[in-house]
Specification:
Layout lengths: L10 H4 L15 H5 L2 E6 H6 L5 H5 L5 E3 L11 E3 L7 E5 L2 E2 L20 E8 L13 E7 L6 E10 L3 E12 L2 E15 L12 E15 L4 E16 L8 E18 L4 E18 L2 E20 L4 E17 L10 E16 L5 E12 L3 E14 L4 E12 L3 H5 L11 E14 L4 E19 L12 E22 L2 E14 L4 E2 L6 E12 L2 E10 L2 E2 L3 E2 L2 E11 L4 E8 L18 E9 L1
Parallel strand pairs: 4-7
Antiparallel strand pairs: 1-6, 2-3, 4-5, 6-7, 8-9, 8-32, 9-10, 10-11, 11-12, 12-13, 13-14, 14-15, 15-16, 16-17, 17-18, 18-19, 19-20, 20-21, 21-22, 22-23, 23-24, 24-25, 24-26, 26-27, 27-30, 28-29, 30-31, 31-32
Length: about 600
């Protein structure tokens, strides 16, 4: 697959009118950013490690726990700091991607056009301001690429194990006051047996995915910019249950559209951002016990945010948003006697964040947010943060404390069989304290953060009597209180012009506060590391390692340590040959009980930029 790189303009391109476009404004308070434990995976890191999936990129970040991959092409649910998936919000270009038609109201991370991504920001800990009241674990903010010149593009293709074919292409440009970018990508694979072969799995489970995205921006005036962004993705995957080679299939479609803009006023001291977004995610199931059972989740969100620079030391952020969520459910196979379900809900809220730098090394931030839910009434959340920089030693100390709340998803409340309309929202709070150290003139950065988090009224599925003859037993109930604590370590270095390495490690212990027992569906230890070497001016090698502790979740998920080897060679300034071997030592393991991880596999391809 391809990744963008700076290109030299041709003589013809230099004749085009000079660029007058500006990027969309970032509406965030700098002091709040300084007090937040965060990690960034940029386009360069994605290219160096030949990352092809969003979950693989997130696995490089401390504090992130992935559920484990099930099926070739299967996506993984995401947790931050031990809190449930519902407490992590994922945004793509300002669009909140959660799917309210399923439990936990989350967005699963999986196959994605990674060549289209500029950076992935992971903000850990409660983020109750502009991201909403429900980000108790944190936020994953994905920003896609913008035009880098008057006209340019990239194409890429690769082939490898399991008859896997990937391809992508993009075109972008800007002239006068208009800029655009369009991309197309796809993956086709015969797959492997999702049910582990050493347990009797035989049939391969194929996977298909394609996606298209587009963006257009107009600098209407020197102060006003308007943007439109759209994205479409469709996936078809085949998978097995944990106890047999019995194919099921799932067809997933996700669509989003956002119209918005930004406005500079008061000479740039007051910046407004506004938009309306609509997302729709559809899942359809086929196989034993299903007959095209369909779940549709829809979300429409209006948002406004502003940043006011009151002085060189004081910044004020404020805004409001309103969200309508709805879902439809049709289950002729899973619950043929149960009625179809349609439901919706509203939530609106406003926030204010003040950032103060009373003296040059010290940043302070405070956020307050109030929300009103159509079913649960009003609720307030807040966050406090502080960061202190010791310039002489390159040291930063930071700490924060915040709260969040998350209503149950529409599926958890209104599913005809498992839903319980009387569910209460989950409430969470958490704090952290950390240190970041820069050495060797910024060539090495190390960080360590200790955190604690807790939830009240956690929603879980428990077996119990059926609610009607049309249903099997069980349902969602508020049963648990949890307490989590952990340590996040991160190190990134480029000690020489030709070498680089990155290390991330997490230790986390999550307890059921009712019993005092550790929740063993989450690993105690996990981490990743990569070492890179540009051994020739045009050649680069990278070795990556990943470790995860054993888990217990309806069976044992293996502890494992895997290695991947990646190589790339620049044939010209614009054409790169690349290849990699995943699971280099052919380790046999299951991230999730009964579901195989692929063995040693190899891939090779070409990418070109113009």
């Amino acid at each position: 697959m391809s990744t963008a790189a700076p290109t030299v303009a041709s003589a013809e391109e230099l004749k085009l009118a000079p660029l007058q476009v500006t990027a969309p404004k970032e509406v965030s308070v700098p002091q709040e950013q300084a007090t937040t434990a965060s990690s960034v995976i940029g386009a360069e890191e994605i290219a160096r490690q030949q990352i092809r999936r969003l979950d693989d990129a997130l696995g490089l970040v401390p504090g992130v726990t992935l559920s484990g991959r099930q099926a070739p092409g299967g996506a993984q649910t995401l947790r931050l700091r031990g809190l449930g998936p519902r407490h992590t919000r994922i945004f793509i270009d300002g669009v909140e991607m959660s799917d309210t038609s399923q439990s936990q109201s989350h967005y699963a991370a999986g196959e994605m056009d990674m060549a289209d991504i500029e950076r992935i920001e992971v903000l850990r800990g409660p983020q109750p301001g502009r991201f909403g009241p429900d980000a108790g674990g944190g936020v994953v903010n994905i920003v896609t690429r913008r035009p880098a010149g008057p006209l340019g593009g990239q194409v890429g293709a690769e082939y490898g194990s399991f008859d896997t074919k990937r391809a992508n292409a993009s075109l972008s440009g800007a002239r006068e006051r208009v800029d655009f970018r369009a991309s197309l990508s796809g993956t086709w694979s015969d797959g492997y047996s999702d049910f582990s072969r050493w347990r009797g799995g035989q049939e391969n489970d194929p996977f298909r995915q394609w996606a298209a995205a587009g963006r257009i921006g107009v600098q209407a005036t020197d102060e006003l910019r308007l943007d439109a962004t759209a994205r479409y993705q469709r996936k078809t995957l085949t998978y097995d249950p944990a106890d047999g080679d019995n194919d099921w299939s799932r067809d997933e479609t996700e669509r989003f559209l956002r119209l918005g803009g930004s406005l500079d006023s008061l000479g740039g001291r007051l910046v407004h951002s506004f938009g309306v977004a609509n997302t729709a995610i559809t899942r359809q199931y086929w196989g034993e016990g299903t007959r095209g059972d369909t779940y549709d989740g829809h979300k429409t969100r209006l948002d406004y945010a502003a940043i006011a620079k009151l002085s060189d030391r004081v910044t004020l952020g404020y805004g409001a948003d309103a969200t309508r969520e709805s879902m439809e459910q049709h289950t002729p196979g899973f619950a043929p006697l149960a009625p179809d379900m349609r439901s919706h809900t509203w939530r609106s809220g406003g926030f204010a964040t003040i950032g103060v730098t009373p003296v040059a090394p010290l940043d302070l931030s405070a956020t307050i947010r109030g929300d009103r839910h159509s079913e649960y009434g009003g609720k307030g959340t807040w966050r406090l943060g502080a960061a202190y920089r010791i310039v002489q030693t390159g040291t930063t100390l930071r700490s924060s404390y915040g709260t969040a709340w998350q209503p149950p998803s529409l599926y958890e409340r209104f599913d005809p069989c498992y839903g319980r309309a009387g569910l209460r929202p989950e409430r969470s709070r958490g704090w952290d304290a950390g240190i970041e150290q820069s050495l060797l003139g910024g060539q090495l950065t190390a960080g360590a953060t200790y955190f604690q988090a807790s939830t009240l009224d956690q929603i879980n599925w428990l077996y119990g009597p059926a609610t009607s003859p049309a249903c099997s037993g069980g349902g969602y109930v508020n049963v648990d209180r949890t307490k989590a604590q952990g340590l996040e370590l991160e190190l990134a270095a480029r000690p020489t012009a030709t070498t680089d390495f990155r290390v991330a490690y997490s230790w986390q212990s999550v307890l059921n506060a009712n019993t005092g027992q550790r929740l063993r569906n989450l690993p105690l230890h996990q981490g990743s590391a990569s070492v890179g070497w540009r051994f020739l001016p045009e050649a680069y090698a990278n070795l990556g390692l990943r470790y995860r502790d054993m888990i217990e979740n309806y069976g044992t998920g293996s502890a494992f340590l895997t290695a991947d080897l990646r190589l790339s060679y620049d044939l010209t300034e614009a054409v790169t040959l690349h290849g990699r071997v995943e699971n280099l030592f052919n380790r046999r393991y299951e991230e999730v009980y009964g579901h195989a991880a692929p063995g040693r596999s190899a891939y090779a391809g070409l990418s070109a930029r113009f």
